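Our consortium's second objective concerns turning raw sequence data into structural hypotheses that experimental partners can test. To show how far this objective has progressed, the report includes one record in full. It was chosen at random from the queue rather than selected for favorable results. The single chain below, 159 residues long, was entered without modification.
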Amino acid sequence: MKKNFSHLSETGDPTMVDVGEKKVSRREAVARAIIEMDPEIIDRLVNDEIHTKKGPVFQTAILAGIMATKRTSELIPLCHPISLDKSSIDIKINESKQIIIDCTCIIHSKTGVEMEALTGASVAALTIYDMCKGFSHNIIIKETKLMKKTGGKNDFKRT
C-alpha cells in the first residue's frame, strides 16, 4: 500500500487532516531534546542551578516548554488546536554531561499529541540555549526526536 503525505489534499494543496470520523481515545506522546555545552556550564547547572537575569535556567525552560505545548497549533500551520489533559517537562543531566529534556503530553481526543511534545521539548531546549549563551555560544541542540506515542492508529516506541 502506497503511503501519502497526511497534510496534502488530492490536488496536492496543504490541508488540515479530517479527524471527524475518528474515535476519541487516550493519546500520549513523549519527545526528547538533547543539548551539549561546555563542561564548565554543565558543572554549574549540576552543582547549583544557574540563576540568570531571566531567572533559574531549568525552571524557566520547563515553563517555556509547557507554554509551547499549549500553543503548538499557533506555530505549526496544520496542527489541530487541542486542549491538553497533561503537559510536563523533565530535565536532567546524564552521565555523558548532556542535558536531556523529555516532554510528555496526554490528551483524550481524536488527534494525537506528537507535535505538542516535540514543540515543548524544542522550546525548552531553545530556552536553555538562550539563558546560557552569555557563558558561551558553544551550545549544541543535538537532536529532538519522538520517543514514543500511544493511541490512534499506530503506537510507536524508539528503542
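The partners drew two points from this record. The chain has one domain: 25-149. The first strand starts at residue 25 and ends at 37. Both points have been shared with the crystallography group to help prioritize constructs.
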